[in-house]
Inverse folding.
């Protein structure tokens, strides 16, 4: 496989550039970056070395021009840079700022996995969080969690149980916390629990329940959105949610929740009664103990932001 320098040398010959070699190299030597490089390394570069590196200098100028003109260069996403290598001039290719930004965005996106969550959470930001008197505590405690977790991610940090009426920004706040954590290098999984429950039921026939459950229960940070929105069967409550929370409690993994119910309401009006109407207070209490261990309640109020 030919390297780019060989190709440049052949190109120079094919275009009969040798006849106009001096004119060509004059344009190369007049390039500001070439001039600056030769000036900086004047003591290290003899005239003979500069001549022997002509094809490298030509490569650098030619590839740089392609990039400037918006054309695809030799190494897509990389920009040429002159370097010294083994006492000769060489060309190194380094990532462009556009490629660096793209890679950062991809890394950022990979740190947040969402299941059946609204698209808007991808743009959720704590800096854009509408701070009113009835939402200030939630924002303050969110920032406290982020600071404590990032200072010591291996130490257990109790997360938040956000509760309040429809549309006050509970889901948005979860997304904003996840995005801040992602920008600082920490991974989060967000699930809309009613939708996740349906997905788990559908996975039974494909033997995929275990894999989906493992992914959720082992997440470094888990956010369970809209818990209590739909009635749940004893199986979903005990063998899915119960297993997730038991694992996370035993391993002290941060777990957020959002709900329209307070903790007491969630226990009495939702978890205690299964989808068949059976009253199972002990199972509900057992589950609530895990939720209370993992999170502390924070109430959100205010206007319904879905109705503008």
């Amino acid at each position: 496989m030919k390297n780019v320098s060989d190709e440049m040398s052949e190109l120079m010959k094919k275009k009969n550039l040798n006849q106009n070699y001096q004119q060509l190299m004059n344009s190369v030597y007049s390039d500001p970056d070439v001039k600056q490089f030769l000036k900086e390394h004047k003591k290290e570069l003899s005239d003979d070395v500069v001549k022997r590196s002509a094809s490298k200098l030509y490569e650098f100028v030619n590839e740089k021009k392609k990039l400037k003109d918006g054309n695809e260069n030799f190494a897509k996403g990389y920009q040429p840079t002159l370097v010294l290598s083994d006492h000769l001039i060489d060309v190194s290719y380094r990532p462009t700022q556009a490629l660096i930004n793209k890679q950062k965005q991809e890394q950022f996106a990979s740190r947040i996995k969402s299941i059946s969550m609204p698209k808007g959470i991808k743009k959720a930001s704590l800096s854009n969080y509408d701070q009113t008197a009835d939402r200030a505590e939630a924002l303050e405690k969110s920032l406290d969690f982020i600071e404590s977790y990032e200072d010591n991610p291996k130490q257990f940090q109790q997360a938040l149980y956000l509760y309040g009426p429809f549309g006050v920004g509970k889901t948005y706040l979860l997304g904003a916390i996840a995005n801040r954590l992602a920008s600082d290098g920490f991974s989060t999984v967000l699930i809309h629990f009613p939708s996740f429950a349906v997905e788990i039921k559908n996975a039974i026939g494909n033997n995929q329940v275990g894999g989906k459950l493992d992914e959720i229960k082992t997440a470094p940070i888990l956010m369970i959105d809209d818990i209590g929105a739909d009635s749940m069967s004893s199986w979903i409550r005990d063998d899915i949610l119960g297993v997730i929370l038991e694992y996370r409690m035993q391993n002290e993994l941060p777990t957020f929740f959002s709900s329209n119910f307070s903790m007491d309401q969630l226990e009495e009006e939702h978890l205690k009664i299964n989808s068949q109407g059976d009253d199972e207070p002990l199972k509900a209490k057992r589950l609530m103990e895990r939720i209370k261990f993992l999170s502390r309640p924070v109430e959100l109020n205010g206007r319904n932001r879905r109705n503008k």
About this structure: The chain is about 50% helix and 15% strand. The two ends are 62 Å apart (CA to CA).
